[in-house]
TrEMBL record:
It comes from the Eukaryota. This is Protein putative RECOMBINATION INITIATION DEFECT 1. InterPro entries: ARM-like (IPR011989), ARM-type_fold (IPR016024), PRD1 (IPR044968). It comes from Populus alba x Populus x berolinensis. GO terms for biological process: meiotic DNA double-strand break formation.
Length: 1025
């Protein structure tokens, strides 16, 4: 019967509506008593039908505001409804819903939850608190636990819990108990786009973690991170949208998880964090309508991820470094390009948020990532961008953020908290760069505050200029700097100038003047220049420990008026370089100026670096300065040439030869072993890289050569050169080499006409030749082998020099005749048969140099015979003995040795025209046929003639060509080069492997009529490719 009554009441209430004036109908005047009766019925009944109808009626009344009306009516109706009744009905409500919540009927549970939800929507916080105190939340959590995440039960539960969570007391404790039931629910709702209780679930999870950080276990953290990371990924990929409030709550959960004591750093968690923060930032950037609140929460998450560092994990842990590198990469790859491009369109809060995030990273100066990020910012013209922000958002908040960030940025870039001057006067600095220049141009004498502001301005302009970030045009910059120098000249000239301020002035002024030099329309003040140059000449400043723009540095070294202070800076640079301390740093990648920049300038004629180095060396020598200063300067010049060999030209043109002569003849340091070693290294570098036209001072180099020859004589008496002597011999080789270009002629004569040097070399050669087969063990690793190598090299360069310097004074045939050793002039001499012994018995390096010497001798002899039309003074037997050695090396593994020997053989065969008898005897030797056949068969073999294989047989080609050129070539040549052989060689030829030697061979075969028409046609096609 009660069920039917309740049903009738439900229908009646559904029909009743409030009138237009909001006054409840007459039935609702009995609302308090009706609610009381309904709640008592719900409490006492166990009949599901009665419960269902009662819940439906109560829910309808709650939706129509009857619970709220009951309180109002009670208060206005003569004490029929007082505070005690109010409390009792709420207690009755709490008790009456507990039974239905425990019902096994899901529909009754859902109806009960709907009733609670609508009840909570219209009651006061005190009534909500009462329901929490009555443990309703525990019932709801239990329903969730048993629901297996089935809708709509879970939806109703979460909507109720979301309202219960507004209670001031008690709910947190119940949330701790029921927290574990929310994890599977979140896993479910997170996978459904725009799920109706997605935000409510996230809110409850966030409230639980933030209010009770220890509530969440390690496994739950891992699961939550994975779920949320997936949400952000789907949101970023466009697979599932997230409302702004849901996105913000998800970010807040992540932050709470990072601060949880249960958060343990694992590789999977670090990876998920990286993916999450990346997707969160990128998603915000991709949204067309930027929500500042959403954007700021994403930035907050980014900062918290960067700052997250558990106590048990060291700062240098790979996971920490990896995570922070990921954050910096997000800023570099996403945030920085976006804000640079979109700054004119974004909200000020978003711009401030991004600047604050960047500033936060910079403040972690102990990290490796902070300096890296600072370099990224300045390479993106951050100074100009910062002042652009001040122009767009002229607020105090933006001004503070910009200048404080610039202070931190400068502090990282210049180190030692260099940004402090900016931080101290940030509130008083203008927001326009033009105003900064105007501030700089004022007189700051006896005005400490203005001086501090000007220091900050100079620091900003200086640091930005190092990275080519110009805040003003060159004309305005130069005018402002000149005004600063002129109006403050008395203080600058009379007082002690701060070294940092001096560096800033030099850099900015030099940079501005360099630009003015390029643009002749920009005037400059000679008086300001005079004052600054006076400061440079009179004030102690340290360029090697400063950072300076390359253009400014180049301009400084173009100013002859400050040669003295620049020479002092070069000496400081030498000292700092020798002690491996920090040297001049150049803008760009902050590279240390370890010779690279100064070497580049020394190689150019548009500055005074080379001249200053030479003059400084002369000055140090004449003043008999400390030895280590001379050594460091000499080493500097040697290293400069190593980096830029063309610098040797500039050094020579400015008199390095004179400086070296001065050191050797007028200084006590010249006898120092350390100075001597450094000088020989420098001279060697100069002589091997200088162009002949720069070696104009032959007299100075002659004096140096004589001095070095004198130092070599004591070593010659022991028939073996020490290391220092070998270095001198190496320089002699280079002097002789340079003399082939008609320079250093007198110095070269001193070398190849030295009788003591010739005697030493002859003794070394004779001793080596007497060793026989054991000479093979004397390679460059042994003292004997090393001395022999240098003696042969000196002989080789002497031959080339003699031919150029004193042409026609040597009878080259005497080198073939062992019985006649007399020469018109006394020179270093090694006869052909001695060279052949070295070729036969020597180690590979000895064979190589000896082959070049023999080739030079045979070449000069051939030229002499062709010019003078002389007959050979040597016997056929002697020539045969030479050729026996040469023929054995035609197929030697070192292609250079085999080529040299083949060229010698081809020239000897060419002597046939003047000595027919000797040539015929030579040509009949079976070794010739063996060489030619080996070459021909190898080149004609199918699929064997690769480029490297053909190169290996190039030397033998020279022999074959020489034999073909004989007036009467051997008959067996036609047998060797028959049609199949020639066709096979042609078949193996391609455009990629054909060489000049092969062209010479086929030309001689053509001249000797060995080729047929079709072979000639085939060759033409190959050569035309």
């Amino acid at each position: 019967m009660r069920g039917e009554v309740l049903f009738v009441l439900y229908k009646l209430c559904a029909i009743i509506r409030k009138d237009d004036k909001g006054v409840p109908p007459s039935l609702l005047a009995y609302c308090p008593k009706l609610l009381h009766l309904l709640l008592e019925a719900l409490l006492k009944t166990h009949n599901d039908t009665v419960r269902f109808n009662c819940l439906a009626l109560l829910t309808l009344l709650a939706r129509q505001g009857c619970f709220e009306s009951a309180y109002t009516n009670g208060i206005s109706s003569s004490k029929s409804w007082d505070e005690e009744a109010d409390h009792l009905i709420n207690v009755l409500f709490a008790e009456s819903v507990k039974g239905p919540l425990l019902s096994s009927d899901t529909q009754i549970q859902i109806s009960t939850l709907h009733l609670i939800f609508h009840y909570l929507c219209c009651v006061s916080p005190e009534q909500i608190q009462l329901l929490v105190d009555e443990n309703i939340a525990d019932y709801v959590f239990e329903i969730i636990r048993l629901s297996e995440c089935k809708e709509p039960v879970v939806n109703s539960c979460l909507m109720v819990l979301n309202l219960l969570s507004t209670a001031e007391k008690g709910f947190t404790e119940r949330l701790v108990v029921g927290f574990s039931t929310l994890i599977p629910v979140l896993r479910y709702v997170a996978e459904v786009p725009f799920h109706p209780v997605q935000h409510q679930t996230l809110t409850l999870v966030w409230k639980g973690i933030s209010d009770s950080p220890g509530i969440v276990s390690v496994s739950q953290i891992e699961e939550l991170v994975i779920v949320l990371a997936r949400m952000f990924k789907w949101h970023n990929d466009g697979e599932m949208g997230l409302p702004a409030e849901t996105f913000i709550t998800a970010c807040s959960i992540f932050v709470a998880l990072l601060n949880s004591p249960s958060f343990i750093w694992t590789s999977n968690l670090v990876t998920s964090l990286q993916e999450t923060v990346t997707h969160a930032i990128v998603a915000c950037l991709n949204i067309s309508e930027k929500d500042p609140n959403q954007f700021l929460h994403a930035l907050y998450l980014l900062k918290e991820v960067y700052a997250c560092s558990p106590e048990e994990v060291p700062m240098n842990d790979s996971s920490i470094i990896e995570l922070r590198s990921c954050v910096v990469d997000i800023c570099k790859s996403h945030l920085l390009p976006w804000i640079l491009m979109a700054i004119n369109e974004v909200d000020e809060d978003i711009a401030l948020g991004i600047l604050e995030t960047f500033h936060f990273i910079l403040l972690q100066n102990s990290d490796v990532q902070a300096p890296q990020f600072a370099e990224i910012l300045v390479s993106s013209s951050w100074f100009s961008f910062s002042f652009g922000c001040l122009g767009l958002f002229p607020t105090e908040k933006m001004k503070w953020r910009v200048y404080l960030m610039l202070s931190s940025l400068v502090g990282i870039l210049l180190e030692n908290d260099a940004g402090q001057p900016i931080r101290e006067v940030a509130s008083n600095l203008p927001t326009d760069p033009i105003d900064l220049l105007l501030l700089l141009g004022q007189k700051s004498s006896k005005n400490t505050f203005l001086d501090s502001c000007q220091c900050a301005v100079l620091l900003i302009l200086y640091t930005s200029s190092l990275y080519d970030d110009r805040l003003a045009d060159e004309k305005s910059m130069l005018a402002s700097l000149e005004q600063y120098i002129l109006v403050n000249s008395s203080d600058l000239l009379c007082g002690i100038v701060d070294p940092l301020k001096m560096t800033q002035l030099i850099n900015l002024y030099g940079l501005s003047r360099a630009a003015a030099k390029m643009n002749h329309q920009i005037p400059y003040s000679p008086e300001a220049e005079r004052i600054l140059f006076h400061l440079l000449n009179e004030t102690e400043w340290d360029l090697p420990s400063s950072r300076i723009h390359l253009e400014s540095l180049e301009w400084l070294f173009q100013q002859e008026k400050i040669s003295k202070p620049l020479s002092n800076q070069i000496l400081k640079f030498c000292r700092s370089n020798s002690s491996n301390r920090t040297q001049i740093i150049v803008h760009g990648e902050n590279q240390i100026m370890n010779l690279q920049v100064i070497s580049e300038m020394a190689s150019s004629a548009d500055n005074h670096v080379a001249r200053l180095c030479v003059c400084l060396l002369i000055q140090l020598v004449e003043e008999e300065s400390q030895e280590h200063d001379i050594i460091s300067l000499v080493k500097l010049m040697a290293m400069i040439i190593n980096i830029f060999p063309s610098a040797s030209d500039q050094l020579c043109l400015h008199g390095i030869g004179h400086a070296i002569r001065t050191l050797y003849h007028n200084s006590s340091c010249g006898s120092s072993p350390q100075v001597s070693m450094a000088m020989t290294y420098l001279m060697f570098n100069i002589l091997q890289s200088v162009h002949p036209e720069a070696l104009c001072n032959d007299e100075a180099w002659l004096a140096v050569t004589v001095k070095l020859m004198g130092s070599l004589i004591p070593a010659q008496s022991v028939k073996c050169w020490p290391d220092e002597g070998l270095r001198v011999v190496a320089m002699f080789c280079l002097i002789l080499h340079q003399s082939t270009n008609k320079v250093l002629v007198e110095a070269s004569k001193t070398i190849f006409l030295s009788t003591s040097l010739a005697s030493t070399i002859n003794s070394m050669i004779q001793a080596a030749c007497s060793k026989g087969p054991s000479l093979l063990d004397c390679d460059e690793e042994t003292s004997t082998g090393e001395n022999l190598m240098f003696a042969l090299l000196l002989f080789y360069f002497s031959l080339r020099s003699i031919h150029t310097v004193v042409p026609g004074t040597v009878d080259w045939q005497n080198f073939l005749n062992p019985s006649n050793r007399m020469q018109p002039i006394s020179t270093v001499s090694i006869h052909c048969h001695d060279l052949c012994r070295l070729l036969h018995f020597g180690s590979p390096p000895v064979k190589l140099v000896a082959s070049y010497c023999l080739l030079e001798l045979i070449t000069r002899l051939s030229e002499q015979r062709n010019t003078r039309h002389e007959e050979l003074k040597s016997s056929v037997a002697y020539l045969t003995s030479i050729m026996v050695i040469l023929k054995g090396l035609v197929f030697y593994s070192d292609i250079r040795v085999s080529t040299n020997c083949s060229l010698c053989l081809s020239m000897i065969l060419g002597w046939e025209k003047l000595d027919m008898t000797g040539a015929r005897v030579i040509a009949k030797n079976t070794w010739w046929r063996l060489i030619v056949e080996e070459m021909a068969i190898s080149l004609a073999a199918p699929s064997l003639a690769s480029k490297s294989f053909i190169n290996h047989h190039k030397p033998a080609v020279h022999v074959a060509v020489a034999l073909l050129k004989l007036q009467k070539s051997p008959e067996w040549m036609r047998t060797v080069f028959d049609d199949p052989c020639i066709s096979g060689i042609i078949k193996n030829l391609e455009a990629s492997n054909i060489s000049s030697e092969m062209v010479l061979l086929f030309r001689e075969l053509l001249n000797s009529r060995f080729l047929k028409d079709e072979q000639i046609a085939c060759l033409n096609r190959i050569l035309q490719v």
